[in-house]
Amino acid sequence: MPSPLFPLPRWGLALAAALAGAVAVLGFAPFGLWPLAVLALVAFYGLIEGRPRGLGLLAGWAFGLGLLGFGVFWIRISLNEFGNLPPVAAHLLTAVFIAAMALYYGLAGWSVRALSGDGAGAGPTPALAGPLLILPGVWVLLEWLRGWLFTGFPWLSIGYTQIDSPLGGWAPLVGVYGVSLAVALSAGLLWVAVRVPGRGRALALVGLLALWSAGAGLRLVDWTRPEGQPLRAAVIQANIQPSMKWDPEALVPILQAHLELTKERLGQSDLIVWPETAVPAFLDEVRDGLIDPMAAQAREEHKSIVLGIPYRDLGTGRYYNGLLSLGATEDLYFKRHLVAFGEFMPFKAWLGPLVKYFEVPMSDFSRGGAGAATLKVGGVPVGASICYEDVFPEEVITGLPAAAYLINVSNDAWFGDSLAPYQHLEIARMRALEAGRPLVRATNTGVSAVIDHRGAVLGSIPLFKRAALTVEIQPRAGATPFVWVGNWLAVGLALGMVLAGALVARGRA
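The structure assignment produced for this chain is given below.
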């Protein structure tokens, strides 16, 4: 086994890896320093190369602690400020969650070392299998696993950092996990360029240039085509604080705030979108006094209004997080991918007394049915997602290619003034780029935005500002390659790279 490039003690190794993970967060929104994501993975590989598997596990876990500890520590805000947990308990649960999720990165470090072997095969090829095949493949397989195991937590997949870089051009073909593969492969090529002299360095630089140039070229391709007339889309951001959201006495002021902003935009907009649970009452409770008059006005003025509202099934007693469209047609979409502890209580029978401490209103929703994630808006199918659903690319594309555009409604107020709202907007931009569709995103406290089919923000409303915004979008038809193949192409490539790398590392190929 080759000697480690950085001969550090255990604590030094863990500290360096945690720092590399924290630096990677700067590649995500709101910082947008996307080259740092690639360099962080270069550091990740450099810290595990030549070390035993156990130290690879330690370094990987520490990297995950740095990445998630800096990147998603905002989880404690929802637990403490809105979930009624004492500060100590909220911080402790957040730390436990981060430590558990960081194990995926620990497994990545262990796997890369285990599969790379000692690089003792004939010639330089076995030594190159680690950075060029095994690192990218393992990284993506574990990101993908984290995205669905135990309902999934795909936040901070490294591919999101490249939404504005040349590598983002790969997203319509292979999705965010494919972009992650390109990031990890770029890190491996950089590692080889630094560590391997002569011809190997030149070939690595050529490969890096080809990978990034292809991505830049792919950004110029229009995978979908315009369909129909442009649409003036408005997003409403009423900036309602979660502390008053479900207060019965606040219902009228909340509705007035949304209606006033809607009145401002009604004359200049074809479509108006309210945020998730913008109406904090069941549909049957406000049908006569609010919904029917709004629907009549929308039909009369040839407008469409889409709003977030809970729906109660009076026959079964179940209730759903819903999205309602009004106007030429009325349709309902029910959220299908619920947030654990925020919208439903997993293992309720096992958790026992702990459940009572999570006093989040409306936290026992039922899941919507399976099928395409579409909502009829003005007679046109639209790709619908509510809040957290848009972090799952394979679920968003179920409404395509039928959907003319995408709508996402959210309420990121649960995470306060943190990195979360900006990270969530970045995720929404990636969904628009993957799908080749514009996306209209209305949130309660921000960041509301209208995004074009290339993932560019056409207009946005800042965090914690009460305002409305109207931007013209172009509905589109057709499909990107990612719509047809989903995550399977990226996952298949990653698996093939791991298998090939393991064989090459042992000199058997």
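Interim note for the steering committee: DSSP finds 17 helices and 14 strands in the chain. The chain has a mean pLDDT of 92.
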